[in-house]
Amino acid sequence: MKNVALITGSYGGLGTCFVDIHAGKGGDLILVGRSEEKLKEQAQAVEEKYHVTAQYIAADLSTADAAQKTYDTCKENQWTVDYLINNAGFGGQGDFTRERSMEQDMSMIAVNIETPTRLMKLFLPDMVSRGSGKVLNVSSTAGTMPGPLQAVYYATKAYLCSVSNAIWRELKDTGVTVTALMPGAMQTGFVQAGGLADTKLFSNAVAPNQVALDGYNGMLKGELNVISGLPGLQKPLISLAPMFPKKTMLDFVYNQQVAGSGKKSSKE
Ligand SMILES: NC(=O)c1ccc[n+]([C@@H]2O[C@H](COP(=O)([O-])OP(=O)(O)OC[C@H]3O[C@@H](n4cnc5c(N)ncnc54)[C@H](OP(=O)(O)O)[C@@H]3O)[C@@H](O)[C@H]2O)c1
Predict the structure, then answer these.
(1) Residues paired with residue 206 on neighbouring β-strands, in sequence order
(2) Pocket lining: 116 vs ligand 1, CB cutoff 6 Å
(3) pLDDT in the model for residue 262
(4) Ligand 1 atom closest to residue 202's alpha carbon, by position in its atom list
């Protein structure tokens, strides 16, 4: 195995794009996800198409031992991870107090925050001792603001941006970098999984391919943050967001995420 990228959530929308980009450059892969069947199928297809080696590790990333299991499997097999892409994650529409269950939100914190943090804790020391390695953490433009009706999701992505940027600075001059990718709304499995299909926010979501490429290239360059895939007015709004009164911004985001808000009215 050489030039190895470990990609979590490898068979999801954005994950598949990362896999294709890295394999397309001749890099080997470690695919991580919870469905062994899908991983096996993906690994076989990637090996056939790109003539690279694709290993896989089946793990439910909402469990506390998933990161350790992933790291131990790599060590046991002497697979050196050159690129760690923390891509797996999910959102979920709903009112924090009255709709979202404890289990849903705690599981989200485990997948979006805890496991990427554990994976960095485990893999970064090896990268630093080798003097090389890159991490790409898939955050979101959601990480730049609070997100009523996806309160925990937005907060998990704010955490991921913050921790990535702080570690980027700590790793200065080590040869190792941590980049945060902040996509806008994309048409992937995320939309159905999070019950977001009929919201305004996802009415003009983009395809994930260019976002993955921007993130991958940003990771190679060791950039701090990569913002990509913002359709329509979202791009100017993101940069102007800090200038809006906070309560107005909270109303705006709430209205974007109300169930049914994405349906076009007869006047439109
Ligand atoms: N789509 C968007 O609008 C958007 C915008 C900004 C950021 N993002 C971020 O982009 C990343 C990739 O998401 P996506 O858009 O590609 O959505 P996706 O198509 O739903 O892919 C998400 C991947 O994460 C995996 N995953 C979820 N829970 C898991 C668990 N407990 N254990 C192992 N794997 C798990 C999924 O596997 P299963 O299919 O087995 O659940 C899937 O492979 C996520 O971090 C997401 O937060 C997405």
Answers:
(1) 186
(2) no
(3) 84
(4) 3
**Cβ–ligand 1 contact at 183 (below 6 Å):** yes
33 in ligand 1 pocket by Cβ < 6 Å? Answer: yes
**Quick one: the chain helix, strand, coil %, rounded to 5?**
50, 15, 35
As given in the structure block, the two tokens for residue 72 are 């131990």
Cβ of residue 67 lying under 6 Å from some atom of ligand 1: no
CA nearest neighbour of 231 among 257, 252, 210, 213? 210
Q: Which of 191, 182, 189 has the alpha carbon at shortest distance from 214?
A: 182
Q: Is the CB of 16 under 6 A from ligand 1?
A: no
* Average of per-residue pLDDT across 194-219: 94
pTM: predicted TM-score of the whole model, two decimal places: 0.97
CA of 268 to the centre of ligand 1 (A): 32
CB 87 within 8 A of CB 138: yes
Q: Is the CB of 15 under 6 A from ligand 1?
A: yes
Kindly give the distance from the C-alpha atom of residue 87 to the centroid of ligand 1, in angstroms, as a whole number.
Answer: 7
Ligand 1 proximity of 181 Cβ (cutoff 6 Å): no
- Rg for the chain (alpha carbons), in Å? 18
- First CA to last CA across the chain, in angstroms? 54
Please give the residue that has the higher pLDDT: either 202 or 14: 14
7 backbone dihedrals φ, ψ, rounded to 5°: -120, 120
Q: Catalogue all structural domains in the chain, each as residue range(s) with its CATH number.
A: 4-257 (3.40.50.720)
**Tokens standing for residue 53:** 């080696």
- Beta strand ranges found along the chain (DSSP E): 4-8, 28-33, 54-58, 83-86, 133-138, 176-183, 225-228
**Lookup: tokens for 63:** 């469990």
- In this prediction, residues 216-226 reach a mean pLDDT of 98
Both tokens assigned to 140: 């979101």
Kindly give the number of the ligand 1 atom that is closest to the alpha carbon of 142.
6
